[in-house]
Amino acid sequence: MVTWKINEQHFEILSSDSLLPQQRICSQLLTLADQGVNKLGFSHCQLITTNDNLLALGFYQK
C-alpha cells in the first residue's frame, strides 16, 4: 500500500508498506505513483523518513 497527499506545490508520499517483503510489490507501487506524479504535471515527489528508520532509508535509497 502506498498513501500520498497532493497539494498545489507538491506530491508527497506519506507511507508505503507491503505484507509480502522481498516481493518488490512496494517498488512496483512506487513506480506507479511516480508515473501518476508525472501525469499530474509534478516534476518530483517528496518523501520523508527518520534517520533511525534504516530499513526505510535503505529501501528508498535504492
Description of the structure:
The protein has one domain (2-61). Helix content is 37%, strand content 23%. The protein has helices at 25-39, 54-61, and strands spanning 2-6, 11-16, 45-47. It has a 3-stranded mixed sheet, covered by helices on one side. α1 (25-39) links the parallel β2 (11-16) and β3. The relative contact order is 0.20.
Topology:
Layout: E1 2-6, E2 11-16, H1 25-39, E3 45-47, H2 54-61
- The span between the termini is 18 Å
Largest sheet: 3 strands, mixed
Number of domains: 1
Query: What is the CA-atom radius of gyration, in angstroms?
Result: 12 Å
**Beta strands, count:** 3
Shape: globular
* Low-confidence spans: none
| Average pLDDT over all residues | 84
- The main sheet orders its strands as 1-2-3
Order of helices and strands: EEHEH
List the total number of helices: 2
Give the percentage of residues in beta strands.
15-25%
Question: What structural class should be given to the helix and strand makeup?
Answer: alpha+beta
